[in-house]
Structures are given as C-alpha cells and as structure tokens.
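Objective 1.3, modelling of assemblies. Example input:
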Amino acid sequence: MTAGPRTDRSWRRAVGAVVGLLVAIAVIGVVGVVINGNIHQTVERAINFDVELEDRGDDLRVAILEVRHYHRDLLLNNPDATRVSLWQDQYRVLLEEIDLVDEVLARQPAGAELPEVGELRQMAEAYHADFADAVRDDIEDLDAFRDLATDLLVPIDGMERIAQAIDQAGEERATASFAAIDEASNTGTLILLAVIVGLGAMGGIFGFVVLRLVEDQRRLVAVEQAAVAQMAEASRAKTDFIADASHELRTPLTVLRGNAEIGLTLDGDCAHAEILREIVDESARMSRLVDDLLFLARSDAASVPLELRDVDVAEAVDGLAARAEVLAREQGAEFSADLRANGTVRVDPRRIDQAVLVLVDNAAKYGPPGGEIQLAATVVAERLAIEVRDRGPGIPPEQLARVFERFYRVDGAGRDRSGGSGLGLSIAAAIVEGHGGEIVAEPRAGGGTVMRITLPMRTAHATPRADR
Amino acid sequence: MSARILVIEDDAAIRAMLDRGLRLAGHVPTMAEDLAAGRELWGEAFDLVLLDVMLPDGNGLVLLAERRAAGDTTPTVLLTAREETQLRERAAEAGATAFLSKPFAYDELLACVNRLARSG
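Predicted structure (tokens):
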C-alpha cells in the first residue's frame, strides 16, 4: 500500500523517458533519412555531372593542346597537305569535344555557375575560318603565313584557358561532392550511433523499471501478507478471547442458577422466592447469551460446527412449520404456513431450524399480540427460499441491512419487551452463510417485514401444495 | 432413594452448590477437588460419579478410562460445556454414561441422578 504511489511515479517517469527517447529517435531517424537522400542526390550528381564534366574538360583541353601541336607543326615546318589534313582532323576532334562538353553542361544543376562553352565554339570557329583560308591553297607568301599562324596562337591560348576553367570547375565540383558525401556519411554514422545509444538507453530504462516494479510488487505482497497474517492473528486472538470468556462464564452461572434453584426447592413460598426466580431466569438468559457469543466467535473463526446431510425439503419444512407454530402460539401469535418446496438440500437441519425459529421468535416478539406470522417455502431459480412474514411495526428501510449486526436493535424495540440477547439475527445469518446461503430483510407489502433465507439446492422442484 | 455420589470438580463454588443440592435431595455426596483426590476416593463403592473434564492436574477422561480399564462400571456423568461435540465422542469412547451441560438446572441434575444412579 505504501509502495503504490511510488510505483505510479516510477511508471510515469519511465513512460516520460521512453516517450522522450522515442521522439528523439524518430527525429534523428527523419534527419537520417533526409541526409541519406542528400547523399544519394550528391552521389548521383557527382557521377552524372561533376566527374563527367571534369573528364570532358580534361579531354577538351587535350584536344585544344593537340590543335595547338598541329598548328605549330604547320607554323614551324613545311605546311604540306598531310600536315594540313592532320590539323583539320584534330580541329574536328576539338569540335566533337566541344559538343560533348556542351552536352554535359546542358545537364548542369540549377545554380551552378559554370563557364560558357558557346564563346569557346565561336572562338574555335573564328580561329578555324581564319587559319583554314591561309592553309587552303599552296602557300605563296610563307612569311605572311607564319605571321598569321603566330598571331593565331593567341586565340588557341584563349581557348585553352576556357577549357582549363571548365576542367578546373569540374574538378572543384567533384572534389566538393566527394567531401559532401564524406561528411554526410560521417553524419549518417553519428546518427546510427545515436539511434543505437537511444535504443540501448530505452532498453536500460525498461529493464530498470521492470526490476523496480518487480521489487515493489514483492515488497507490496510481503507487506500485505504480513498485514493479513497480523489480522488473522488478531482475529484468532479475539475469537479465542470470546470463546475463553464464554467458557469461563459458565462456571459462575452454574453456581448462580443451581443455588437459586436449590433455594427455591428449600422454600418455594418464602418472601425471597420471587428474587430467586429472577436469578434463575436471568442466569438462564445469560447462559443463552454465552452460548450465542460462543457460536458467533466460532463462526468468525469459520468453524461453525455443521453436521451436513442430504435432507428432503418437503419433510423438513413440515417439521419446521410444526415447531414454528408451537413457538408462535406460545407467544400469543397466529400462525399459518404456505409450503410449496420439494427437492433435496444438503444442510445441518438442526442449525437451519435454529435460524428459522430465530426469525419466527423475533416476529412473535416484535409483532402485535395476536398478529399473524406466515412461514413460506418455495423454490426459486434452483434455490430454496424460506420466508418468515409478519405484520409487525416493520423495520425502517435504512435499518434493514443493519438488523443482522451483533447487538443491533431497531429503534424503539426495547430490551425489556423482547428479552432477547440482540444476537439472534446475527446467529441466523452466520448459520445461513455457513451453508452458502443468503439472508435478507425486506419490508412487506401492506406493512410488516419479510425475512428471507435462500439456500442452494441439490435437486429442486416447486409444486403447488395446499396451505396448511 | 439415596445414592452415594462421588463429585470430582475443581471449582469450590460448584462443589458447594452440588453438595448442598444433592444432600437436600437425600443423596450422600463425596467431594474431590482434583484428579489425584478423585483417583484415591474412587476405590470405594459409589452409585454415581459426577466428573468434571478440565481439572488442574489433568483431564477427567483419563481417570474415567483408567477406571473402565480396571473393570469399573460405575455410571459416570461428565460435567461439560454444551458445544463440546468432539469431546462427547471422546467421552463416549472413554466410557461416559451421560453428560450434563453447564450451566445445568437443578431439576436436570436430580433427574439425571435418579435415572442413572445404581440403587444401593
């Protein structure tokens, strides 16, 4: 009981921690997915564009250097048809390389600031046009040709610078991409580590909480067991005390009663006879009270001595009605019976008789003189119902449930008039409950009270029977 | 009818009451306050024994069983508490003739004596 709130707090804390970790892991996971997408994009771009641009830029530059090589060959040596043809071939290679670079640049991602290849093409075409005119025919003025050729080395250098720029841009981009991939994959590793640590922490918290709960539960069970044992011990001590006290009361009662009766025998007409009779009566009442207390003490200890046997209901109820009638008439009440039950019950018939007679006795004591008491027996839903109905003053509804409490008396029902111990209904209830049955008090339609005992049956059948 | 009655009872007040009541009815009671005294006195001839069960030096049933084993058939009435049903079985085995539940009525006591005492 003491561990309850602490367990709740532990739970709440643990659930909070686990939820927090779950959220953190989810966020880290989302970041991981985004980073993974970025890596994918970067790798794809690097392969599709950056690296290819670098390669093509390189090739382009080589092609320009080759053009320059054949150009110088024409400049420095005799520009014959073979050399012109070689230069022309290399120029076409250059154009192809420009086309290839153009193709790659067409795929350039948005925002990439790259050198224009259009300018390069114009420069190449202008250079070719200028130089091709000069090398087309047989060269007459070699000096003029060499001047032109020397001049035209300048645009080649210009083209080479552009190609170099493209090559360099491609290289830079590729390097940057690989760095980005590197970084992203490092971040991915960190994220993976974070997730592993998070899951580990979660497992740890779960384990901790489970251990704590098990420990708390064990402590709780131990506390409860101790409490139960203590209560059982207290209850046993109380029962033992009542039993011992009741037992001890018997000896002085025996002396009181015996001596009073002997006194009456010695002289039944003396002035003390009335006093002696009162002593006898009161000691008899006290004897009953002692018996009742002892019975209840035993029923508390769940050891009501029941001698159970199978009993024919019709027969038992007939006998019970006869005894109830005697008891009722002794006290000046009218009596009628309505017996409609058949079948078999497993009961201690003496105890059941005792319980029912307590109800009849109460009905007679508290009812008006000459009032009618009815005993009814029926079978309802496989249960034997025995009712004692009276036309007495009735029991206030709020007190109906309390009448089975020990020494409880309904308001206005005085001790003097009843002469009872206040334990009769408690004993009836203990007997009925000892049989696995129920006892209830209900207001009776038209005034009075119905006390109903229900008992489980072995076999049951309800048949209409004539009223007695 | 006058019967010789051995009363073995540890409570002095009950002993006094029984002595008074039995004498009043014309019987001749002999009192024993514990098991040892009872064992000593039981050697004499009695028409009836009133035997308490819980005695300071032991259980009355032990003495009864001893006497029965020795062939004694004196009618013996156990003074018991009403609810001691288990005791009754053991008492019957030990050879008890009848029971008187405390607190008993004077009439009950006399009826019991008149019914069971061997006419001496």
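Residues 7-301 of chain A form one domain.
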